[in-house]
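Look over both lines:
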Amino acid sequence: MATIHIERVIEASADFVWDRLRDFGALHTKVAPGFILDTVVEGDVRTVTFDGGLVLRERLIAIDDTHRRIVYSILAETFEHHSASNMIVPEGEDRCRFVWVVDFLPEGPGERIEAMMNAGADAIKAAMEKAVG
């Protein structure tokens, strides 16, 4: 199994960032506008349309308000297994750390996944900092 772990420091409060991130249907409006073009939620599954045209379906596994953590899984034949978590860790009053961990099988698409995660994390950081700016 492959694991990718990335982090970004965000110059915004953990509560502010978590309030936006925990909204499962607001990726395109509150979390990463521009990088994510649309999000449609049906029950516990969201369909996400990315800039560039990629469309993925993701199942919500858990939202943990105590630990500011959301867990989801991509539903695609590409993966035998996929699990992702986003966590917001406070670092003072007006700063936090965005932590994104993805575990998946097979390991083949790892470089592509990591590139998308880095682009997504950069978009999230920029959107959050702009929103509090």
